[in-house]
Structures are given as C-alpha cells and as structure tokens.
TrEMBL record:
Subcellular location: Cell inner membrane
NCBIfam families: matE (TIGR00797)
Transport as UniProt keyword: yes
Alphabetic keyword roster: Antiport, Cell membrane, Ion transport, Membrane, Transmembrane, Transmembrane helix, Transport
Protein name as annotated: Multidrug-efflux transporter
Entry superkingdom: Bacteria
TM stretches of this protein: 64-84, 105-122, 142-159, 171-195, 201-226, 250-278, 284-307, 328-347, 367-384, 405-427, 433-454
Taxonomic lineage: Bacteria, Pseudomonadati, Pseudomonadota, Alphaproteobacteria, Hyphomicrobiales
Species this chain originates from: Aquamicrobium lusatiense
GO process annotations (BP): monoatomic ion transport
One Gene Ontology CC term in the entry: plasma membrane
One Pfam assignment: MatE
Length: 466
C-alpha cells in the first residue's frame, strides 16, 4: 500500500467515526425535540375538544408565552459550547463543567423572574394589543398557571445540555417522553375533571404543562445524581455560591443566541399576522404548512445541537481537521435530510395535508388549494432553513454567536419580512408572497453563515488556538 493510499484510508476511517459519533449524539436530541413538539400538540388537540373560544384563548396565551420562552432557551443553550470545549480540552474535567452548570441555573432564575412578571400581566398586555376582552381574560388565566413551568423547563434544558456535552443524551430523551405522558394524562384529568379532580378547562391545561415541566426537571436531577457517570460532578454542591466571571461569560455568549432565536420566532409570528390580514383561508393553510415544516425541522435542530457539541469538543482539543470533519458531517446530514423532506413536499402534498384536514371535503377546497401552493415554496424553504440551523450550530461550537445574530437580524427582519410584505400586499402574491419572503430571508442567513464557516480560520476562536 502506498503512502497516499494509507493516508486516504486513515482519512476515511476518521470520517466514518465522525459520522457514527454525530448520529449517536443527534438521534436522541431529535427525539427529545419531537417530544417537546408532542407536548404542544397535545395541548392543542385537547383544548380543541373543549371549544373554539377556548382554543383561540390558548393560542393567544401560547403566542405570548413562547416568545420569552425561546429567548430564555437561547440563554440556556450557551452552556453547551462552553462545556463541549472544556470536554475537548480536558476529557476528565469536573470543576469547570460544574461551574458552567451552576451558573446556567443562576441565569435561568435571572431570566425567569422578569418573564414571570410579564406573563402574570398577560391579560392586560393582550387587551393593550386590541384582543377581545373575554378571550384576553381566559388567556390571562391560562398564562398564570402555564408560567410556573417555565423555570423548571429552563433547569431541565441546562441539565440536558450537561449530559449532551458529555455525549450521553439518551436519558434526556427518556425524561422528555415521560414528560409527554404526564402532560397528556394531566390534560385529560384536569381539563375535563376526571378521577375526582374538578373540571378546570384551559387553566387545567396550563397546570398540566407546568407539572410536566417540573417532572422533567426532577427526572434530570435523579439522572445526574444517581447515574455514576454524572454523580461525580456533584452539580448542586454549594449552588448558592456566585461565580460572576462564568456568569458574565454565559451572558456574553448566550444573549446573541437568544436574540437570534427570538428574531426567527417573531418573524414567523409576523408571517401569521400577515396571513390573517390576507384572509382566514390563507391563515388556515399557513397553520397547516408551518406545522409540517416545524415537525421536519426537529431533525436539523437535533443535528444543530449535535454539531455544537462535536465542533466544540474538537475546538477544545485544538484540532482544526476535527473541527472541519465535525462541521461538514453535521451540515451534510441536516441539509441532506431537508432535501429529502422537500422532495416529499413537492411530490405528495395532498397526502401530507390529509394528516391535518379532510382534503376531499368541499368546505376545505380553498384551504387545500392554498396549502398546496404554499408547499411548493416551503420545499425550498425546508432546505435553506435546515442549512441555516445547522450552520448556526457549527459556529456556536466555536463560540461564535454575535456576528450570526447580526446576520439573522439582517436576513429575517431586514430582507425576509419587507420582501414578504411587498410581494403579498403590493404585487398581489398574497400568501405565496409571504412564503417567498420567509424563504429569501432564511436563504440569506444560510449563505452568510456558510461563508463565515468557510472563513472560520479567520475567526477569533481559531486565532486563539495554540
């Protein structure tokens, strides 16, 4: 065997090992994300059986709840690249990982307090936004029970990030699915008043979700204190001791992640509002298509999280070649899956839509027609959405978050939203114009993030490596 053949064989082996490691890390994270989506879907399905006004009130409350939730989630995710880098730098590190987890829990408390104050006054906020008083009042009661699950959910995310950084995310998946079951049972019992409990309606649904989130946090506490692989870190010892340096580092890294996620979430909220201005059928068609996109997005989102860990570990070990392998492996997986998803959307639109509505009913004819048109654009949307999500995770592994945040603001709100407004309302494209705007904004962000990854050797992270 020649030297060239030996090098090629060794290189191929490294790539295969990276593919296996990324898959082993990504699939539990994907299942965890799907479990979180299942919890939301459970609430919607059960409250839909109560009545249309209750479902509408829950939608109002959920929209107000999810924006600050996503922002706080972004702050919690800053713990992942910090811990992954330390694992790569020193595999047996204990104290540094414990510092990050503890201060991540501190950040969770700090961000939860103002969000609680905001959500406690949800009814007044919705009234100020011009919502119907009856719906605003019901949504306000919903939020006052739903909000108490926010802090334990943030705690769960921090502990999930800890075990994911150690490349052992399986327990988080188990805990998440237990949470789904608890949420389902809690909704059935508390919303409708079974097993001797009073019938609580929408308030019962919020309480069930809070109980499920608290149960998931308790589950993760049991995992990290009883499993011998995690017990040695003693994560909760002297929790009250402040570590201001690590807290500042987490905020410096996490605030851009939180802002980037908030820019994307609010863009989709704005798109829903525009669809509502166009017409009820457009809004219904958008709701169905965006739900399809959301489910498929859970796969690249899980790969995004795996990319952050794998790139972060390679970054901590000061291995530029391993960084490249980790990043490109995740990128190929994420974009490849979304390309297949796009192909399914283009070839089987009615089959996909039939999972949500009766496509043969004459009453749904307009919604089906509009949704089919939206799916044609959403197919391309899928690819660029997966590309930007995974690329953001790759750069996050290098602790590069500020410039990607600026790219997101430019792409989503500087290009995507104005273009969607112009095409929908000034050029007569209606709902398709909104989707083209979304797709264009995501495409711009995807390209900018990819270019930044290609130029990664010029980033501060690379220049700081010995």
């Amino acid at each position: 065997m020649t030297a060239i053949e030996a090098d090629a064989q060794a290189s191929g082996k490294l790539w295969r090992e990276e593919i296996r490691a990324t898959l082993a890390l990504a699939w539990p994270l994907v299942l965890t994300n799907l479990a979180q989506t299942a919890m939301t879907a459970t609430d919607v399905m059960i409250l839909g059986r109560v009545g249309p006004s209750t479902l509408a009130a829950s939608a109002l409350g959920a929209n107000l709840y999810f924006a600050p939730l996503i922002f706080g989630l972004g702050l919690m995710l800053a713990t992942v690249p910090m811990m992954a880098r330390e694992v790569g730098r020193r595999r047996n590190s204990v104290r540094d990982l414990r510092r990050t987890v503890r201060q991540g829990l501190w950040v969770a408390v700090l961000v939860a307090l103002p969000i609680w104050a905001l959500l406690w006054n949800g009814e007044h906020i919705l009234l100020a936004m011009g919502q119907e008083p009856a719906l605003a009042a019901e949504a306000g009661h919903y939020l006052r029970t739903l909000q108490w699950g926010l802090l334990p959910f943030f705690f769960y995310v921090v502990l999930r990030s800890f075990i994911a950084s150690l490349e052992r995310p399986g327990w988080a998946t188990v805990v998440a699915f237990i949470g789904v079951i608890i949420n389902l049972v809690g909704n059935l019992v508390l919303v409708f008043g079974h097993l001797g409990f009073p019938e609580m309606g929408i308030v019962g649904s919020g309480l069930a979700t809070s109980i499920a989130n608290f149960s998931m946090f308790i589950g993760m506490i049991l995992v990290v204190t009883l499993d011998r692989r995690f017990r040695r870190y003693r994560l909760f010892g002297r929790f009250w001791r402040a570590d201001w340096q690590r807290l500042r580092q987490l905020l410096w890294l996490g605030l851009p992640i939180a802002a980037m996620m908030a820019f994307e979430t609010t863009l989709f909220n704005a798109a829903a509002l525009m669809m509502g201005l166009i017409g009820a059928s457009s809004l219904a068609a958008y709701a169905v298509v965006i739900q399809l996109c959301s489910v498929s997005f859970m796969i690249p989102l899980g790969i995004n999280q795996a990319a952050t860990v794998r790139v972060g570990i390679a970054y901590g070990s000061h291995d530029p070649e391993a960084i490249a392998r980790a990043g490109w492996t995740s990128y190929a997986m994420g974009v490849g899956f979304m390309a297949l998803s796009a192909l399914v959307m283009m070839t089987l639109p009615r089959l996909l839509l039939s999972a949500f509505i009766d496509v043969d009913s004459p009453a749904n004819a307009e919604v089906v027609m509009l949704a089919t048109g939206f799916l044609a654009v959403a197919a391309l949307f899928q690819i660029v959405d997966g590309a930007q999500a995974v690329a953001a995770g790759m750069l996050r592994g290098l602790q590069d978050t500020t410039i990607p945040m600026i790219y997101a603001a430019l792409g989503y709100w500087g290009i995507g939203l104005p273009l969607g407004v112009a095409l929908a309302f000034h050029f007569g494209f209606d709902g398709v114009g909104v989707w083209i705007g979304l797709c264009a904004g995501l495409a711009v962000v995807a390209v900018l993030l990819l270019v930044r990854w290609l130029r990664r050797r010029h980033l501060p992270a690379f220049r700081a490596m010995p």
